[in-house]
């Protein structure tokens, strides 16, 4: 779903589609080698409070094996999509398949609606002998999922598939890496770091963060250093605020966004500053 602003109805449809896909993907035998990560893992597995549009995974599987698994998952997902959204067509739309990652979209087009329901999936390949810490979680027992099942919005019989998800500490380390290496800053990373470290009180594990520099097939290249977040110039602070404003409004309700905006995003910026200050004090260094 391509959004510039927060739209509750379309977000709820996308979230139901995400859960259907997670259920079908983790019903596959080889799915134990798929590790759910990122903002959507935070949303469903650990009580994250913002919408997240992508399903992100890391895996030791080759892209061809992932594609085979997806095709099988989609055969089961089609009937569930129809049950939730009415008659329509389901298709897998490739985005890219570079050596270290597979990206694609799953699109469902209801016959009675003008807009498609689209979920982006990304599968990042792990280096050999590398694997993040994980938890195994029953889909139907997750709080946000149980709520949608109780209200009748998520109607999947026996949705007791077991997800393999990164621990909160691992997701936090990915957010640290993202803030340092993304070409363009994204407000969602500031928000997720704040939510994990300040709201959920997830500690910054120095070993997990340090090893994350050399975890994926895609090499880590830092575009910023710790100082950028610890002692930003006036221009750099303005750059961070602008990135938060432009990106985060897609993922938070307007009333929540207004609270952060009124404080000039100081809570989010302070959370990043404090975390990178802590990392520096404990001797974490960029490679």
Contiguous uncertain segments of 5+ residues: none
N-to-C terminal Cα separation, in Å? Answer: 36 Å
**Strand order within the widest beta sheet:** 1-2-5-4-3
Count of alpha/pi helices: 11
Q: Keyphrases for this structure?
A:
single chain; 287 residues; alpha+beta; Nuclear Transport Factor 2, Chain: A; 2 domains; five-stranded mixed beta sheet; two-stranded antiparallel ribbon; 11 helices; 47% helix
Report on this structure.
The protein is of the alpha+beta class and 287 residues long. The protein has two domains: 1-166, Nuclear Transport Factor 2, Chain: A, CATH 3.10.450; 168-287, no CATH class. It has eleven helices and seven strands. The strands form two sheets. It has a five-stranded mixed β-sheet with strand order 1-2-5-4-3. A two-stranded antiparallel ribbon has the order 6-7. Helix 2 runs antiparallel to helix 5, helix 5 packs antiparallel against helix 6 and helix 6 (187-199) packs across helix 11. The model has no long low-confidence stretch (mean pLDDT 93).
How are the SSEs placed, and which strands pair?
Elements: H1 8-25, E1 34-37, H2 38-45, E2 54-59, H3 63-85, E3 88-96, E4 101-110, E5 117-125, E6 134-138, H4 143-150, E7 162-166, H5 168-181, H6 187-199, H7 206-211, H8 226-230, H9 234-248, H10 254-262, H11 266-281
Parallel strand pairs: 2-5
Antiparallel strand pairs: 1-2, 3-4, 4-5, 6-7
Helix pairs in contact: 1-3, 2-5, 5-6, 6-9, 6-11
